[in-house]
Structure formats: structure tokens, C-alpha cells
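Quiz preparation item.
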């Protein structure tokens, strides 16, 4: 906790500079948000935060990236953004190894790059804004242990090689290591398509006896609703589902008792704060920007800004449903 507090203190003078300095933003400044699956509710929430920050600064906010999970298409979107020489880039990394060279290329060109939601920790991005994903996994893992009484077979739905999802999986495994009665039956790659989770759930439900699957754990946003739909259609009520994120469909499934719980993140905060920080860095750039701040003990930036997580279950789901109902219309 001490290290994290110092990180925020390092950012604070930069933030205060915008309030006391004489520089102002220009409408000609352009900032990019780049990700995958940008049509999902999770990303629409992030885009809302990004747009609101752009509106406050009166700058241009551009959203780029594929509507499906496609790391190669995300790389192409990043390459085009770098060629446009924007004021800053905020990117959620689908494949760290694939995207790292282009992130470094942007930094070499003097373009500030920050990662959010999913990191490229070995790149020279300025810093990462998002969830402590290992902590989020531990939060979900403890819920599974409590609900199953420390014994049962579980299946994970995920996408390997995506850094944030790997961290969540590791968090669950941290907890399960102390509960040998919890067995991981499979780690299923949905390949960015919730339909794959739907089909796989039907197959898992056919397993009986010692191979029966007791819990479905969803490490990303889309598979929870797919699992819930299979259970609802077949009137199955004796399986545990722990989802990820708080889109309205997931929240309603919790209220209806089909999904037990979900882990809430703050995509709005990630993107809102991310553009704000890029804007401040544009006005007060580090000299030189080429420094690798990850290995600089006098860095003006933290390595990581944790935007927080929370467990959402039937006892508090109404709070999140109310927030979703009051959300502003998303960009079309």
C-alpha cells in the first residue's frame, strides 16, 4: 500500500500543474483510445469516460480497433494511430508480445503511450491504469471456495496470452492452492467469441459423477451471460457461475439468481483518467520522453494506477443496476 500511495503522490504535482499553470489545451489536440471488442458494453462504458474527458479538455478523442477480438487488427489500428502523430495514445493490450514493438516505436517518435485495462509491462509505455487483476482473481477465488465449501470441479473461460486474463487466472490459482478440494477441470479458450463458451457449457453439463462441473468461472466479460443462458434454458440451478464486469445483462442474471456474482471493474475511470493524464503529459512533457520509466527510480510516474475492484452479488446488485440505468447514452 505504501508503494501505491507514493505513486499517486508522484502524479499529484502533475495534476496540480494543470490547475495552476498558464498552458491550455487546444482543440487541435488528438488522443486515441485503442482496444479490441469495442462494441461490447464494457468498452462502451470506457469510451464514455474517454469522451467525457475529451469534452472537458475540448480536445479530439478518436476510438479505434476491431469490434471482435483480433490482436492483428488492433496492431493495425495502433500503427495507423502512430502514423497520425497524435498527442497521446491510450491502449488496452490484447497481445503484449505482438503490440510491444509498435508501442516502443510510438515512444521513440515522442508520442506518449499509456496502457489501460490490459498491460504490456515490458514495453516502454509511460504507465498502466487499470485493475489489479491478480487481486481481482483472488477476490473471485475466495467466493468460489466459500460457495463450494472448499470442494468441487471448476472450469475457466478465458483467452490465453491476454495479460490481464492471465493475471486473473493466477489470482484464482493462488487461492485454490490452499484448498486442494477445488480442482481445475479445464481452462477453455473462448477465442473472443461468447458463442464458444455457450457450446462448451453444454458439453460440460453432460459430465456426471466425479467429473461433474460444479462451477463456471468467467475471466472476461462476455462468457458469463453465455453460461447463464445455457443454465436458464435447461433449468439448471445447482451450478455456480462467477462472472466478470457489470454490464446490465450480467447484473440482471445475478438478480435473477442465475449468476452468483461478478467482479466489478471501472472501465469508465480507466479511460477518463487515462485521457486526463495524457492531456497533462502533453502540456508538461517529460524530458526526454524516451526514458524507460519502469527502471527509473526518479520517475515522475507510477508504474501502475489501480482503479479498484468490487464483488457484486445479490445483496448489492441493485446499486449497480441503478448506476447502469442512469448511465449516459454511449457514442454511436
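Solution:
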Amino acid at each position: 500500500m505504501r508503494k501505491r500511495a507514493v505513486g499517486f503522490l508522484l502524479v499529484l504535482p502533475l495534476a496540480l500543474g494543470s490547475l495552476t499553470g498558464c498552458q491550455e489545451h487546444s482543440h487541435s489536440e488528438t488522443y486515441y483510445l485503442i482496444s479490441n471488442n469495442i462494441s461490447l458494453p464494457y468498452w462502451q462504458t470506457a469510451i464514455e469516460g474517454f469522451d467525457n474527458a475529451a469534452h472537458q479538455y475540448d480536445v479530439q478523442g478518436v476510438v479505434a480497433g476491431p469490434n471482435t477480438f483480433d490482436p492483428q487488427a488492433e496492431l493495425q489500428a495502433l500503427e495507423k494511430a502512430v502514423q497520425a502523430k497524435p498527442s497521446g495514445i491510450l491502449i488496452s493490450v490484447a497481445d503484449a508480445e505482438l503490440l510491444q514493438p509498435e508501442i516502443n516505436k510510438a515512444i521513440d517518435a515522442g508520442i506518449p503511450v499509456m496502457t489501460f485495462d490490459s498491460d504490456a509491462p515490458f514495453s516502454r509505455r509511460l504507465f498502466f491504469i487499470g485493475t489489479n487483476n491478480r487481486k481481482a482473481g483472488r477476490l473471485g477465488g475466495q467466493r468460489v471456495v466459500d460457495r463450494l465449501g472448499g470442494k468441487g470441479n471448476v472450469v475457466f473461460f478465458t483467452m490465453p496470452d491476454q495479460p490481464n486474463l492471465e493475471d486473473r487466472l493466477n489470482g484464482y490459482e493462488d487461492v485454490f492452492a490452499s484448498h486442494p478440494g477445488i480442482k481445475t477441470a479445464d481452462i477453455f479458450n473462448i477465442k473472443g467469441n461468447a458463442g464458444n463458451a455457450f457450446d462448451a457449457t453444454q458439453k460440460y453439463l453432460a459430465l456426471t459423477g466425479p467429473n461433474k462441473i460444479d462451477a463456471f468461472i468467467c475471466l472476461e466479460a462476455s462468457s458469463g451471460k453465455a453460461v447463464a443462458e445455457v443454465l436458464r434454458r435447461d433449468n439448471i440451478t445447482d451450478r455456480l457461475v462467477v462472472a466478470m464486469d457489470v454490464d446490465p445483462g450480467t447484473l440482471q442474471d445475478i438478480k435473477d439468481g442465475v449468476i452468483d456474482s461478478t467482479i466489478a471493474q471501472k472501465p469508465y475511470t480507466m479511460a477518463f483518467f487515462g485521457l486526463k493524464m495524457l492531456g497533462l503529459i502533453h502540456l508538461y512533457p517529460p524530458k526526454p520522453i524516451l526514458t524507460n520509466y519502469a527502471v527509473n527510480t526518479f520517475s515522475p510516474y507510477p508504474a501502475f494506477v489501480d482503479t479498484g475492484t468490487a464483488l457484486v452479488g445479490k445483496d448489492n446488485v441493485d446499486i449497480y443496476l441503478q448506476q447502469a440505468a442512469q448511465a449516459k447514452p454511449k457514442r454511436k
